[in-house]
Amino acid sequence: MKRNILTMSLISIISGCYHSSNVDIDIWVPENKAPQITIKKDIDYWNKKGYHDGACGWTLSVNVSMLPPPNSPDYIYGTEIFIEYDSNGKIITQWAAPANTYPIAIKDNLIFTDSGLEISSDGELKSTVYEKQNIIHISCPKNLDVDNSDYLRCAILSDSPLGEGRNIAYNAPCT
């Protein structure tokens, strides 16, 4: 995995097409790997190690240079999944994103998050500032093939003011 990420990063840098940067993101921690609070390992101990307990469970802060999509063998378990789907509910594109984030804009193969990240469909990422697009929330199609979640939301985002809307499914942040 590290070799593939290094190779892709070097190719991107050499070609000058796109430059990923390392960023700290949060990922969800599975229940069976969640920190155990004890007298010796209290909440402060775990916070210093990058773990944070929230309303929907533990997250872990990790430093990454890429966020490979869910259909990639290098996918980082615990990230959010953003899905573009067609009018029949068929998945077109998938992106991985930090835990507890949501999409604010889309352009070509890039999706922009409320946490200030630009993520390509290949998983390349960089910190950025991007203006939130007009987001129209809609009902998710019943035939959309995604895990059943109480937080699943669907919305239409547009590439440009005159661009055609694109259907995006994502999990709303946990509060």
Instruction: Please identify the structural class as seen in this structure.
Output: mainly beta
Order of helices and strands: HEHEEEEEEEEEEE
**Adjacency order of strands in the biggest sheet:** 5-4-12-11-10
User: Tell me about the biggest sheet?
Assistant: 5 strands, antiparallel
Binned strand content:
35-45%
Q: How many runs of DSSP E, i.e. beta strands?
A: 12
What is the CA-CA span between the terminal residues?
33 Å
The number of helical elements comes to 2
- Which word captures the global form? globular
- The low-pLDDT segments are 1-18
Radius of gyration: 17 Å
Give the averaged pLDDT, no decimals: 85
Organism: Aliivibrio finisterrensis
Protein name: Lipoprotein
Supply the key terms.
175 residues, mainly beta, five-stranded antiparallel sheet, four-stranded antiparallel sheet, 2 helices, disordered N terminus
Structure description:
It is globular and about 60 Å long. The chain has helices at residues 2-15, 43-48, and strands spanning 23-28, 51-54, 57-64, 80-85, 91-97, 103-107, 110-113, 117-120, 125-127, 136-138, 152-158, 165-171. The chain has a domain at 66-172. The chain has two helices and twelve strands. The strands form three sheets. A five-stranded antiparallel β-sheet has the order 5-4-12-11-10, with no helix packed on it. It is mostly beta strands and 175 residues long. The protein is 11% helix and 37% strand. This is Lipoprotein.
